[in-house]
Amino acid sequence: TGQNRSMNMLLTTHYAYKGKYIADLTVRRDGNTSFGEDKRWGTFPAISFRWNITDEPWMENVKWLSMLSIRPSWGYAGNMVGGYLYLSKYASGESYNGNGSIYPSNIRLNNLQWESHEDWNLGFDFGLFDGMITGDVNMYLTNITKMLMPNRAISSSTGFTSFAYQNLGEMRNSGWEFRIDAHDFVKIGKKFRLSANISFNNN
User: Fold this and answer.
1) How far, in Å, are 47, 73, 83, 171, 178 from residue 201 at the CA level?
2) What gap in Å lies between CA 84 and CA 166, rounded to an integer?
3) pLDDT, greater one: 92 or 175
4) How far is CA 87 from the centre of its chain?
5) How far is the C-alpha of 4 from the C-alpha of 191, rounded, in Å?
6) Is 16:22 a contact under the CB 8 Å cutoff?
7) What would you measure as the largest C-alpha separation in the chain, in angstroms?
8) What are phi and psi of 5, to 5 degrees?
9) For the chain, which has fewer Cβ within 10 Å, the N-terminal or C-terminal residue?
10) Residue 7 and residue 34 in contact, taking contact as beta carbons nearer than 8 Å
11) Measured between alpha carbons, how far is 188 from 11 in angstroms, rounded to an integer?
12) Which residue has the higher pLDDT, 106 or 151?
């Protein structure tokens, strides 16, 4: 009951101009037999950009800033479940007058579909004093829709106690991350060097 088959196709393209402006585009097409024929395929695009600001001519005189870039991105991803849940399944029941019997062991989930994750991210990378101090800041927002909720309770009058899964509910998650690293900021001779890093996460 937990088996399934999947297939995916991926289209990706990359563009860079003088190492300053970089763009990546990805389109993923996923199919999975956990869902019915008209819900089986999902399309998940993603795009990201990068602007290396310190490569601009007007930044040449800012000597203490060795690296600064901005990284916005947006994309979709999907989540699935296992098993051929859109099919009717039967199990053997008690015999009657010497004849065997069968009964339905599940509820067909014809309308089950991909859980959808939409992700937004804005990141900054920086380097100071020829890379002695480096770090990054990331702000993110994730919207989850058509959530795949397991064991969704239903009325026992149906002959069952729950749906195996149901697309139900939405969720939003947002937060930020900060990381900073110090490289070789203490040197004693040629062999001893001290580095450190600090990171924060909040959501």
Assistant:
1) 24, 19, 36, 19, 7
2) 14
3) 175
4) 28
5) 56
6) yes
7) 95
8) -120, 150
9) C
10) no
11) 51
12) 151
Sign of the C-alpha dihedral computed for residues 182, 179, 15 and 129 taken in this order: negative
Q: How crowded is residue 165: how many other Cβ atoms within 10 Å of its Cβ?
A: 21
β strands within the chain, DSSP E: 6-17, 21-32, 41-52, 65-79, 90-96, 99-104, 115-128, 133-145, 148-153, 162-167, 171-188, 192-202
Span 45-66, pLDDT tens digits: 999 999 999 999 998 888 899 9
The Cβ of residue 10 has, within 10 Å, a number of other Cβ atoms equal to 10
Q: Which two tokens stand for residue 71?
A: 């990284």
Decide: 111 and 168 in contact? Cβ < 8 Å.
no
Q: Measured on CA atoms in the order 17, 19, 23, 24, is the torsion positive or negative?
A: positive
DSSP conformational letter for 18: T
| Phi, psi dihedral angles at 55 (to 5 degrees) | -85, -5
Cβ atoms < 10 Å from Cβ of 187: 10
User: DSSP strand E in 21-64: where?
Assistant: 21-32, 41-52
Here the tokens at position 178 are: 């900060």
Query: Which tokens belong to 139?
Result: 């702000």
